[in-house]
Amino acid sequence: MSSRAHRSARHGRRSRRGLRIPVIAAGVATVAALGAAWAGTQALRSPGSASASASATASASVEAQSRTELAPGTVFVPPADPSSALATPSASAPAPAPPAEARGSAGASPSPAGSKPGPAAAAPAAKREPAASAPKTTAKAAFAPGYDSAADGQQALDAALRAAAADGKQVLLDFGANWCGNCKAADKVFGQPATNALLNDSYHLVKIDIGSQNSANFSILRKYSSGGGSYKMPVLIVLSPPGTVRTDTHQSGNPALTADGLGSFLRQWS
To answer: Based on CB atoms within 10 Å of each CB, which residue in 50, 67, 111, 207 is the most buried?
Structure first.
């Protein structure tokens, strides 16, 4: 009797071992299926999203580091984004003249058949020449210190280039900020009678604010002073009447912000 019970117990243990093997196999299969599903989900993600995110994070980190390491009187100008580059407007060109045929037919009404031509138009009377008058004197413009953060920098630049094309003066771009100590020092010199006379005689001055992080004004600065990054203010750029850069203090360095330094700079590029 005892041997029969012993054989029954051994049979029961073998049966339980036989049941555990399929259960373990089913668990392994379930884990493998879950792993395959997770891998498929990762494969569906855009392959460029991770690299784009890493690139944006790195760019933001570099920009933040550049801002924290700026020296006094400098401003950080981010490089242009090619995907959202703004076309810099220029002075509007005159509308093209219509073709000669259109000019000849415009405003001319057809004559009815059989009508006689009218009399020839009388020659216009000779115009009387106005008496010679004394030449007009142009009042000197008062120098206004500071930078208007609400002003349209491109509009002011276009107006200065049109004036320069008419009178042959140079255009002086002054990029700065109201909180910049160097800009305030330059303004004091520009406002002195001798330096102000040099400005009025040879330049059209355009002051453009870059201290308020104005992206439109940043685009103007990048157009005439290539690159980006840290700019020491004021950035003084002289343009010829056609708009060609003659000198850029971001590349050459600022002159001494004194009457002698700025006066020599203005006389050199006038």
So the answer is: 207
Q: CA separation (Å) from 145 to 16, 62, 94?
A: 95, 34, 34
Query: What is the identity of the amino acid at 72?
Result: P
What is the SS3 assignment for 36-73? HHHHHHHHHCCHHHHHHHHHHHHHHHHHHHHHHCCCCC
Contacts of 189 (CB under 8 A, 6+ apart): 195, 257, 258, 259, 262
Here the tokens at position 34 are 């879950």
Output the pTM of the full model: 0.57
Residue written as token pair 């002003």: 151
Please tell me the distance from the alpha carbon of residue 31 to that of residue 172, in angstroms, as a whole number: 72
CA nearest neighbour of 219 among 80, 76, 59, 74: 80
Q: Which residue has the tokens 């009457």?
A: 259
The residue type of 43 is A
β-sheet bridge partners, residue 174: 207, 236
State the Cα–Cα distance between residues 195 and 257, nearest whole angstrom: 12
Which amino acid is residue 240, in one-letter code?
Answer: S
Give the position of tokens 């042959």: 168
Model pLDDT for residues 167-225, shown as the tens digit of each residue:
999 999 999 999 999 999 999 999 999 999 999 999 999 999 999 887 889 999 999 99
Question: Could you tell me which residues come within 8 angstroms of residue 268 by beta carbon, excluding any fewer than 6 positions away?
Answer: none
- Quick one: which of 206, 210, 221, 203 has its CA closest to 263? 203
Tens digit of pLDDT for each residue in 100-126? Answer: 444 444 444 444 454 455 555 555 555
